[in-house]
Amino acid sequence: MSVLYVLFLPLLSAIFAGIYSFSPKNKVIGYFCSYLMLLAFVYSLISLYHLMNVNFYLNLGQWIGLLGINFGLLIDSVSLTMMCVVTLVATCVHFYSIYYMEHDAGFNKFFAFLGLFVFCMLILVMSDNFLLLFVGWEGVGLCSWLLIGFWYQNEKFSLAANEAFIMNRISDFAMLLGIFLIYFNFGTLSYKEVFGILNFHETLNPNVLTLIAALLFVGAMGKSAQFPFHTWLANAMAGPTPVSALIHAATMVTAGVYLIIRSHDLFSLVPSVSYFIACLGAFVALFAASMAIAAKDLKRIVAFSTLSQLGYMFVACGLGAYKVALFHLVTHAFFKALLFLGAGNIMHAMHDELNIYKMGKLYKPMKITAVLMILASLALSGIYPFAGFFSKDKILDFAFISDHYGIYAVLLFTAFLTAFYSFRLIMMVFFAPQNHNIHPHEAKPIALFAMLPLAVLAIISGFWDSSFFDFIRIPMQELHHNYLLIAVSLVVAIAGIVLAIFVYKNGSKETCNCKYKKLLENEYYIPKLYEIIFINPYKCLSKVLTGFEEGLYALIFECPKKIINLICCEHKNNSLTLHIVFIGAFCAFLLLTMVVIYA
Fold first, then answer.
1. What pTM, to 2 d.p., does this model score?
2. What's the pLDDT score for residue 184?
3. DSSP secondary structure letters along 12-79
């Protein structure tokens, strides 16, 4: 079965690299793992070819007999799409990592973590029930912690990994409650059976359905870093750049969108929750874009862009355009991975410098990277004929034709900001006056070749929109081309690009004092607010409990020990006294035990 190869080849990669994780770094391990990932992508395409028009169920065995839960796989149009995207992006990231991590002592271990990450994501998207999905869900959470904190010797990086892990555990608790409610009310966790019962939703309690949908969405909010769980995503840039590409393009954050799309039968029955999803998505899209226009850190700008684009996807899900949301997820994976890998090239060339105000004039020494990142930025900005034009504009069009004009206006303004901050980055890094004393260099051929498929797909994948919508078997209101709306969004995006070029063609001083710049640079002071409300009280409580624990330990163990030592010292030659002390202590212990038992 080709689908089993897709699932287990990344696991084989993780096991193989894991065996050598504490051995001296060896590029052979990197190449072997990369070719295994490439083979998984090939089998994904084979599965796509053979199973394109069917829903294929594969039962691997019983898991929890009492609950009737199996290790089962569901291969349909949605999971096939995710399989192809995950394995393709993972293949590019694996080959790129051979270059990026070549001087790192943890080279072998890094590939073990990458393979496990991909395996867990594939379990998530290929499972046929909510509980197995949750296993993959927690697996990608664990792997993201391992990879974000890969350089754990750095306390800042370690804290960033902990933040991502803890933030997701909070939202995952809500998702787990939702899964419990599904089982208690439906008697099963199988997608096929649950969604079959939903066809007779008239017999179901609408309040229960609303609660289940809300709890599942809270889980999706955490995984996809939607407000107020958003702070971990930008801080996750602490990990190696290939990890950022994989998290932002094909794994981790896309899992939340996938959950909503997979559960569309449920969410379509709870319009109140769906409308909230759309409104929150529009808010997050604008919220993240506004922070990106003031950010100085190269990778954080790209991270905020991911957060903003996830907002677009959730808007599409909330409005019932699940096909459009999935299409934007696919196209976004290509140009976002390309942007992150380009950022990795810049970091290597600039000796890990991330402040775009300390760059400039990198176009000439890094021409290929510059061209690839410009292509990705054009796709992100929604310029024709790049992929983002087709997918993002369809979300805008759907918001307009479904009479959600407020959401449309927010997304349209966000499109302007997206184009502006994308080319602010391009201008400051590649074309602004030089503001450094470094002699940058282009990345090695293996890194550039790894980026090439992503660049090609960022250009051409949008033209597959009609075929894609025919392939995805999810009901959706028919969407006709409105050339006026297309023209408006295109003009807005071009205006953002032109403005960025005009403002930043001669660079910009880091000390530029705009009215709201400090507010945006500090991310609306939300991280600081979290620190005051949650982190500092927790630290105080921890200190109090630590003091209490140490005092209790001293009272129970240290004080008696000191008394006995004192008695022993005073009566060194009196063994009778020593025996009396121990017998008395033992009798006191028995007496205390009896009092506790019979009280």
1. 0.90
2. 92
3. HHHHHHHHTTTSPP-HHHHHHHHHHHHHHHHHHHHHHHHSTTS-EEEEEEEEEGGGTEEEEEEESHHH
